[in-house]
Amino acid sequence: MKKALFIFLALVGIGLYGQSKDIRAAFRLDYYMEEPSAEFVVCLPEDSTYLGATVRLTSASGQTYSARVEQPGGMVGIEVPIADLPEGSHRFQYAVQTDNGTVEGSAELKKLPYKFNAVQVDRKTGGVIARGMPLIPYGFYCYSPVQPMIQEEEVVRGFNLISPYQSIPGSDRKMRKVYLDRAAELGMKVNYNLLSVATAGTGYNRNQDPEERRQMFIEEIKAFKDHPALLSWYLADEPDGRNTPVEVLRELYQLIKSIDPYHPVSIVFMHYGSERKYIDCYDISMGDLYPVPTKPVAGVAQFQKSMSDALQLEKGIWLVPQSFGGNEWWTREPTAGEIRASVYMGLLNGSRGFQFFIRHGQNGFPKSTTAWGEAAAVALEVAEMTPYVLSGQPAPKVAASDSMVEARAWTRGKNMMVAAVNKENTPKDLVLQVEGWDFTGELKVPFENRTIQVRNGVIEDKIDALGSRVYKLEADPVLTASLDSLNVVDPSFEANTSVGVPNAVYAQVGKGRGSTYFVDSRTAHTGEHSLRLITHKNGEGVTLQHFPIIVDSARTYTLSFWAKAGAQEEFPQEKNYVNDRGKVKVEKIRPVDPVVNVTARLKGRTLVDENFTIDSPQWKRYQVDVYVQQQPGKGREGITLNFRLDTRAMIWMDDICFTPKE
Hints:
- The protein is globular.
- The strands form ten sheets. It has an eight-stranded parallel β-sheet with strand order 19-18-17-16-15-14-13-20. A five-stranded mixed β-sheet has the order 1-6-5-8-9, with no helix packed on it.
- The protein is built from nine helices and 40 strands.
- Helices cover 16% and strands 36% of the residues.
- It has four domains: 2-111, Sandwich (Immunoglobulin-like), CATH 2.60.40; 130-389, Glycosidases (TIM Barrel, Alpha-Beta Barrel), CATH 3.20.20; 398-475, Sandwich (Immunoglobulin-like); 480-660, Galactose-binding domain-like (Jelly Rolls).
- By secondary structure, the protein is of the alpha+beta class.
- InterPro entries: GH.
- This is CBM-cenC domain-containing protein.
């Protein structure tokens, strides 16, 4: 049976950069679970030969799906229904037919049983998907034992990834579970370091019995493959610099996959071309250039571009930004500007994860708190851009008038983001031309709380030395919040003037350390944003006090909000921690539903004090009636509305209303 399906077509690589001379084809995700459909993607060369070509995909049962190439270059996507496809490996045949002939090949689709902590590699964008949402991991290497409070200190800055160096043979597994359990409570992920029982690296003992080492390797994977904080396995550190045999890493990679097919395996490379040499040994390629101060920082762009070009439609791509210096071969560490430029050069050239080398708090690595503060600032910017960068939707090319400025565009529905980075330590006039775009009007500059006027698709601005600029076109009504600011200021959390932070609230953090509140651009009831709350311990949630509400007196109002819950499995039921004597203890914690306490007060009088159990993973409306007897005044004399997530849980909130009862 032949089906004409929706076609995805882009002029550029949709999150992948450069054009291969050969056709590349693959299913978008490295494996599927309960998804109703799978996207088959073909990457075509910039060659007019393929204009008007037909892409056909045929399943083992003979079903055929097709798409027509409307423009040369870029990617063509075909949606394939897979809800009824059984679990296992399925081989599809494809053909690209042109007037000059046919190119044929095959692609494998893997379907696995559902697993809560699964992490999928998005081959189309180079990113990852965790809990069904796109994620750009952004964090750091650190030392073991993990410093007390470093996770709490960094998660509130916006870092979401940690990767401690560790000696598996030389330490207690319970100590490793301590930082994993804490990461899960905080909403952080772990790129789990296996170097000491793999081939080389920190803690590796060449004199250890190989069979004993192999058994430790297996046991470590089995011990943590189901942990909610696990993002990926870190298998090798610069094997190209150590001349590690490919077959050794390939065997270890296959061993990991035989035990845990649900988590990607990462390797870091230091040289151009190594990513192809070790192509069968990993799922995520990480590049560590470390140019400062001996080489131009602009080299990061070419390093990551080469890796992205080599691996498009095959692997995930990460960057290891440099955050150290002052000894060994490096006479200084990077400046704040060099850190910012490095991350943006990576982002614009295909990097979809960032793991700084290295962080040791509070000012060990890097020494400069200003430089690390810049890394944190960019963390929040990258988080805000995530649904655009990982959308996989068509986007136009962007040309910069200066050869030392790079720029790219990403789209989300009808909205568009354009990002630029200055690769030189000199301020510049910035002129960007978006291909095929004749827009005249206003663009937001979201990370600077300003707007600019655009004429005929040309963006003109200034860009700092080693600086970045991000512009946003908001043209999609579907992504526009439906609520106005009647009574509640910023009810949909769209006005996050400081990126990642809700505008119109006071935050009372209480006595606990580690509970967070972030504006999340990946999910919303309406618009593009919601508020994500994580409480790390029962009774230690953040209280958010909204800007005072002024309404008429002697009336009943309905206070309502929309919310959805994260899974209870995010939080370990047996938590390992270190007590005051330095001993690892285990606390058993009963899972509980998320409970949000909502209060409204006026001039010292409680109008409502209600607990709501957030009992659905889907958006659901919660409400309570509030009678207002006295007339609220301005400022502190208005109604104070407070929200607090009281239980150890994660939720999202959106669309808060305080309206007259109908």
